[in-house]
Amino acid sequence: MKRIDMMWSLALAVGLVWAAGCASEPAKPALAPTVQHNETAMPAPAAAAELKVTLPPGAAKPPVPFEGEGWQAMFDGQTLAGWRETKFAGHGEVRCRDGVIILSMGDPFTGINWTNDFPTMNYEVALDAMRVMGSDFFCGLTVPVGTNFCSLIVGGWGGSLAGISSLDGMDASENETTKFTSFETGRWYRIRLRVTENKIEGWIDKEKLINVVTTGKRISVRAGDIELSEPFGLASWQTTAALREIKYRRVTGPAGKGE
What domains does the chain contain, in order, with CATH numbers? Predict the structure, then answer.
């Protein structure tokens, strides 16, 4: 019995010493959750869209010559000299690359405004435009018409509409200029608009799509953010667009036969 009592006493002493040691040792903090740093983490969705903007092979196709004389360049092919980004809410990035201005997809608009002088009547403006990504208009060309303004929309309302916004309060989808055609992604289109005293004419490549007498008509842009494109601007809607060869010239009247 004495031996058993001695063993219990020894065990109790060891236990007390161990307990005292634990009480005197500082508590260790809980381990923080392990965070794995991924060096190739995906960017935010908007940034990812920007990184994926790649010009298609068709972008390298050289422009066709401008017909007629007197054309003045509005884009030097290298910088945005003479232009500024339009202050659209949710606009995408605007940049120059390989002789091209890229309007990255916005939410919904991305655009640029011309900051130098531009005629208000009797002029013609032309450019090459391409839809790179998206399914809506890749060219919203807003121009002056005397003291008013209007927009030529190319590829709008789901991708296939062309027309003038607005005539007598009716936009490009509901007035006499409304045209539907197929616009391919990754293909350059030569877009040309001629504004004279009583007429607005417009061509896409060689086809004349716009030929409207403006006498007695109320001319305006569609109400909303596109008004920020005044007096002269280019914009895209939820679409990445490429622009090049932007030029204008003065004219004396409507296009003659053969133009």
Answer: 68-250 (2.60.120.560)
Give tens-digit pLDDT for 88-99: 999 999 999 889
What the block records as the tokens of 133 is 């990504």
Identity (one letter) of the amino acid at 68?
Answer: G
Place of tokens 């007629």: 68
CA dist., res. 226 & res. 142, Å (int): 8
pTM of the model: 0.79
Please tell me which residue, 58 or 75, carries the higher pLDDT value.
75
| Residue 186 CA, distance from chain mean position | 15
Q: What is the pLDDT of residues 151-183, one digit of tens each?
A: 999 999 889 999 999 999 999 999 999 999 999
